[in-house]
Amino acid sequence: MQADCTCHKKEREMTISRFTFDDIDAFLKTCAGEGLTCDRWECEFLLQAFPQGCFVYKDDGQPVAFVTSIAYGSNGWLGNLIVISDWRGRGIGKILTEYAIESLRSAGVQSVWLAATEAGKRIYQRFGFVEVDTINQWMGFGQSGKLCDMPGMDISQMISVDLACWGYRRDSLIANIAGHGTVIAGPDAFLIAQQWNYGYFQLGPWVGKNFEIIEELFKTALIRIGPSNPIFSYVPFRNVSAAMLLTAQGFKIMGSSTLMCLGDAAYNPRNIFGLASLGLG
After folding, report:
1. For an engineered disulfide with 234, which of 17, 185, 253, 275 has Cβ 3.0 to 4.6 Å away?
2. What is the pLDDT of residues 166-195, one digit of tens each?
3. Which candidate, 168, 174, 181, 182, places its Cα nearest to that of 156?
4. pTM for this structure?
């Protein structure tokens, strides 16, 4: 007599949960595997500043997709939407985007900003995001030369200058980056040089209204970083002065993304020479 045998196939458990500090290593590994750039400090800052807007999608406990967001008053940024290549085309990016937008709306955000890849644009357009500008990634190298004295600037002054250029307050962001980067400042303008892994430096945030001062900050940053050290910056295409300045120092465009907005797209890039990052604005 043959015994009856019932086999139960275990169903895979798909979950969406808050992105926590325990997920950072998996996120950075995913970024590296997909050829994307992000640093640990950005994850830690986002999880401290706006933890309710950062999510991870897991398959049987293994992270396969992430998204982050942050609110700056009535404006917010959505970033770091990354889905492992084998999991794309299943609507996961759309679901995570919905979660992030809802978190921003719940925090009172009226305008949501992001920098989209070409592949990601179609996802965001379905939510009503519109194209506002192109963000170019410029790359070049440090230089040798004689340093000139710059007057410096305290955090409160930097926040005021940033507010005048962006139109909304980003207090926690400016304070955080100033704490781990090198601040180079002049009258009504500042630049923060951030050191990344593998010897790379990023210029940004980088804002100001006086082009001569902006140019002086840039040249000072190049000398402080030193010759042969690679440098990059995320720069609005519509800031023509920035393009002229970078080109004159031998910088070249190595990539680009599309700046998009959901809501009131009040935007004047004339005084924005470099973003803090693509996920933070």
Report:
1. 275
2. 989 999 999 999 999 999 999 999 999 999
3. 174
4. 0.91
